[in-house]
Amino acid sequence: MTTAPAPASARPRRRRVPAAPYLFILPYLLIFAVFWAWPILSSFLLSFRDSRLGEGAPLGTANWSRLLGDEFFRTALRNTLVILAVQVPLMLALATALAVALNSRLLRLRGLFRFAFFAPLVVGTVAYSAVFRLLFNSDFGMVNRTLTGLGLPAVDWLNQPLPAMSVIILALLWRWTGYNAIILLAGLQGIPEDVYEAAALDGASPWQQFWRITLPLLRPTLLFCLVLSIIGTLQLFTEPALITNSGPGNATMTLGTYLYQQGFRSFNFGYASAIAYTVAAIAAVFSAIQLRLFGRDT
Amino acid sequence: MKRFALLSLLALAPAAAAQSSTLSGTVTIWSWDVAAKALQSTVPGFNRKYPNVKVEVVDLGNQNVYDRGLAGCAAGGADLPDIYSIENNEAEVFWARFPNCFTDLNTLGADRLVRNFPAFKWTELTAGGKRFAMPWDSGPVVMFYRRDLYQQAGVNPASIRTWDDFIAAGRRVNTQFGGRVKMATIANGQDDEWFRMLANQNGCFYFDNAGQQVTVARPGCVTALNTIKRLYDANVVATGDWGGQITNVKAGRTASAMFGAWYEGTIRTNAPDQRGKWGVYLMPASRAGGPRASNLGGSALAIPASSRNKAAAYAFLEHALATAGGQATMLRSQGLVPSLLAATRDPYVAQPQPYWGNQRIWQTILGTLGDVPQARGTQYFQDARQIMIVTQADFLKGRYRTAQEALQDAARKISSATGLPVAR
C-alpha cells in the first residue's frame, strides 16, 4: 500500500509542531536530569574513587576489588538471601491464604478484617520496631514471659544470631503479609465467577478449584507481589537497623544496613556507591529471572 | 622580673577589657542531650564577661548533629552553626574528608592552651598541623561498684588491683549469690567497649598513634582480648547490650560496672533508689603494678570555617572549656568529666558525693587523667570497630585457638578495609 505524499505546504508546519510538547515537559526533564540522572551517574563515578582520600582522589578500582574480597559484604549478602529465601515464600503463602479467606462469602465483617490486616503498613516504622524490641526483650518481653509461663525455656532473642534473625523475619511477616493479601485480593476479584460455577458443575472440589483455577489465574498478581517483595528485601534496612542494629555481631546485617554503615557511619561514599550498584544489579538479575520463569503469556 | 610581669599585665588588661565589650552578635551551638544542658549551664558565666554575645545552644541529639554536620560539610559549609560538637572517636573522619570545613583553632590562639589539656585528648583533634577542635569532656575509665553486694560477698574493693584479683572476687560473688549476681556486664556481639578500654590500658589500639599502621595484633591488645576471655570463661561476667547493662544495674544483677566516667550520671539517674550504695575504684591492672587508667569516649568543640562570628565563638570555647570554672560548672550540672587539667583543682572535685557513699569520686576519677595512654581512632574507627566486635564474639565462642590468632585475623581484615598495612 502506498500513501500519497503530503502537500508541500503542510510540511514545514508539521516540522514545527513537535517543539511545543517538549517545551512543556522541559522543566520536568531538567529536574529529572539534575536530581535523578546526574546523581545516578555521579554515584557510579564515585564508586571508582576512593572517597576517603579526599576531593582529588584519582579514579581506580580500589572499591570494586575491596568488594570482591570483603567478608562483611558476603555476610550481608548471605543474610539478605536467607531472609529472601525464608520470608518471601512464607509471606506470599500466608498472604494468598489470607486473601482467599478475605474473599470468602462466608466471612462476616470483611471490611474490618481487610483494614486490620492492612493496618500494620500505616504504623510508623520506628514505633513498630520499638514495639518489637520490647516484645522480644529477654528479661521483660511479653514473648519470653509467655514462653516461661507455658513452662518453656526463655530465648535470648536479640543477643543470639539465629533468634535475632527469626525476630527480623517475624517482624517483616507482620508488616507485609496484609499488604500483599490486599493486592492478591484485588487479583482474586478479577477472576470471573462463572469459571468457578462451571467447575462446580463439573464436580470440582473447592481444593481442586483452588489449585486448578485460583492459583493459575492469580499468577500475574503473585508475580507482581514476588518482584516487589524481592526488590524490597534486597533494600531491607528499617527492621535490622532499628530492631537488632545489625547484630549481634553481624548476624542480621543486610545489604541495606551495610551500605548505610559504609556511607554514613564511615563516610566512605565511594565504597557505598559500589555496594549500591551491586544491589541494583542483583535486583535486576532477580527480576529478569522471575519474568523469564513465571512471566510467560502474562 | 616582677616589674616585667606587672608591665605585661598592664599591657594586657585594656586589651582584654576592650575585647569583652567589642564582641557581639549571636553564637549558635549544636549539641546533644546532657552535653547541651552542660554547655547551657556555662552561658550565664560567659555573659558576665561578654554581655553583648547571645549564645544559643541547640539540642539536636547525637545522631542528628553528626548527620547534619556531614551534610553541611559536604555542601561546602552551608547551614552549619558557629560551634559544632564532635565525638573524639568520630572527629578524624571529618578532618580527613572535609579538611576545609573547620577553622584551625591555632589561628585564634589555641596553640597557647596545648599544655592545659592531657596529650591524649589532642591526638584525634589535630591533623596536618591544624588544631581542629578543643577538648571538651573525657572518659577516664573507672570501676563503679555496689558497696553492699561486695560487702555481703566479703570482697574488699581496695584489694582488687589486678584482673586476677577481679576474677577471684567474682568467684566469691558467684558463691555468695548462687550465680544470680555477676561482677559486671560486658557487651559481646553488640560492641567492643571492654576490649577498647583494656587495650588502651595496655598501650595498644586498633591503629598506631601516627594513624599509619594497624596495630591491633600487638601484645597489649592480645593481653586485652585474653583478659576478656578469662573473665568470660570464669563465668564472672554477664553479657548484654547498652540497655541490658543498665537493666542489670537497676535490678542489682551486677555488683559493678566499668565504663568511662560519664557513666556516673547514667547509674545515678537510672538507679536513684540505690543512693549511697555505690562506690568507685580504679580499673584493675593487667599485671601487678601496671597502669590502671584508660579512656573511653569524650567529645570536643569545633568552629566551622563558615561561621561569621569566629571571635565570639572562640571566646565561648575558651570560657567553657579552657577555664576551670567553666569545666567545673559542667561537671556539677551534668557530670561531664573535664579534660582540662586545672579543673582537677576546682573545690567541687574534692567534695564528697552523697550518691556515691560520700566518696570523693571526682578526685579518684580525675586523678587518672594524666596516666591515660594515647590512642587514635583515625578516620577508619568505625570500620575497625565493626571488625573487632565480630572478632571478639567469635573468639569467645571458640572460633579461634588463641587471642593472637584472632587478632591477626582482625588485623588482616582491618588492613583490607582501610588500606593501611599491618604493623610487624
UniProtKB/TrEMBL annotation, chain A:
Q: Does the keyword Membrane apply?
A: yes
Metal-binding as a keyword of this entry, yes or no, is no
User: What residues does the ABC transmembrane type-1 domain cover?
Assistant: 77-290
Transmembrane stretches, start-end:
21-41, 81-103, 115-137, 157-174, 217-237, 269-289
Q: What is its main location?
A: membrane
Keywords (A to Z) from UniProt: Cell membrane, Membrane, Transmembrane, Transmembrane helix, Transport
Question: Which compartments is it annotated to reside in?
Answer: Cell membrane
- Membrane topology, from the record: Multi-pass membrane protein
**Listed GO biological process terms:** transmembrane transport
Q: Which domain of life is it from?
A: Bacteria
InterPro entries reported for this sequence:
ABC_transporter_permease, MetI-like, MetI-like_sf
GO cellular component, as recorded: plasma membrane
Similarity remark: Belongs to the binding-protein-dependent transport system permease family.
Name the record gives this protein? Lactose/L-arabinose transport system permease protein
From TrEMBL, chain B:
List the Gene3D superfamilies. Answer: Periplasmic binding protein-like II
For this UniProt record, give its keywords in alphabetical order, as a comma-separated list. Signal
State what protein this is by name: Lactose/L-arabinose transport system substrate-binding protein
> Per its UniProt entry, which superkingdom is the organism in?
Bacteria
Q: Which residues form the signal peptide?
A: 1-17
